[in-house]
Amino acid sequence: MQLHKILAFLAENGVDYDFVGDDSIEINQVSGLDNARADQVSFLTDKKYLDYLQTTQAGLVILNKKMVDATHVAHLLVDNPYYVYALVAQLLNPLKPASNFIHPSAVVHQDAIVGDDVYIGENVVVQQGVKIESGSYLAAGCVIEEFTTLGKQCRIGSNATICHHCSLGDNVIIEAGAVIGGDGFGWANNQGQWFKIPQVGRVIIGNNVSIGNNVTVDRGAIEDTIIEDNCIIDNQVHLAHNVKIGSGSAIAGQAGFAGSTVLGKNCTVAGQVGFAGHIEITDNVHFLAKAGVTHDITESGAYAGFPAIKASDWQKNSVRVRQLDKLAKQVKALQKQIDILSN
Q: Any idea which residues are catalytic in this one (predicted)?
């Protein structure tokens, strides 16, 4: 693709940029700075890779506006290089477009409502009462159970399952192997025997939500499990029944939420963070990796450790813990001196 077309695309998307170079060159793919070829575009957001900028063979580099004259190759100066890189990468690597197609091996119930330009791949199952709006893409082997609704432009990955009566908004991505709306861990014990509690709630997912590979989102036990608009959820995350995720939140891989926990808006959760059940997290809270959250968080900020405390306090404690052995030796020496003086 000629570079001037990429520049036009960015302008159409409201990107304010300064360009230095020849806009007639071909740019066909993205790459890292150190391995890029002359027909590839790269970017720089971390100064520790600054040396690569001097030797890169990339045809185009996306940089922050403050980095004027930082490279000899053609470059774009923008406010947010990573965002602009994402736009360019999307342009050069378009998703497989949805089209008005149903594979002969798919099973689509006669009562299902399928909108225009919906792609239904091999061995897909669409059950009774399902409604799929226009432009959605269902990859091979996925199952959409009865009375579930999919909004416009949704993409459901291979072998993903959307269980019955769930609701997805527009532009929702469900990656391969995810299970949305499966039964949660609802059991009652009587005299040592476990009795299953029917899970009668649903899963409600807002607009512009992305859910990663092999994520499990359990349906509500009585009320619904809810994921609000503009959330992104990484691979292998588990949301138990009745969890609510506030809009704009981001959750990294292998995080786990026990039942009925509420995460506020615009929160970030790093990898392997665990949440106890029935707790509430306010807006704009950020959890560092492997934090264990056992209580309500009512003040915005960064938290870490187990049980999770403010990250600044956790960092101080971590330094002190590393000094415990030295402190113990000092106490032992002092005790020895006291014993000598006492005798």
A: 241
Statement: residue 71 has pLDDT above 90? no
Rounded to 5 degrees, φ, ψ at 256 are -140, 135
Residue 215's identity, in one-letter code, is: V
Which tokens in the block code for residue 247? 């809009």
- Which burial class, exposed, middle or buried, applies to 20 when counting CB atoms under 10 A from its CB (0-12, 13-18, 19+)? middle
pLDDT tens digit sequence for 170-217: 999 999 999 999 999 999 999 999 999 999 999 999 999 999 999 999
Handedness of CA 78, 79, 85, 91 (dihedral sign): negative
Give yes or no for residue 29 having a pLDDT over 90. Answer: yes
Considering Cα of 241, then 246, then 248, then 254, what sign does the dihedral take? negative
For residue 320, the one-letter residue type is R
pTM of structure: 0.89
- Using an 8 Å Cβ cutoff, are 237 and 256 in contact? yes
Coil, helix or strand for 78? Answer: strand
Q: Which residues are catalytic?
A: 241
Band (pLDDT 50/70/90 cuts) for residue 49 is confident
Amino acid at position 336, single letter:
K
Q: Look at the block and give the residue holding tokens 């029935």.
A: 278
Give the other-Cβ count within 10 Å of 97's Cβ. Answer: 9
Helices vs. strands in the chain: H and E counts, helices first: 5, 38
The per-residue DSSP string of 89-133 comes to HHHHSPPPPP-SEE-TT-EE-TT-EE-TT-EE-TT-EE-TT-EE-
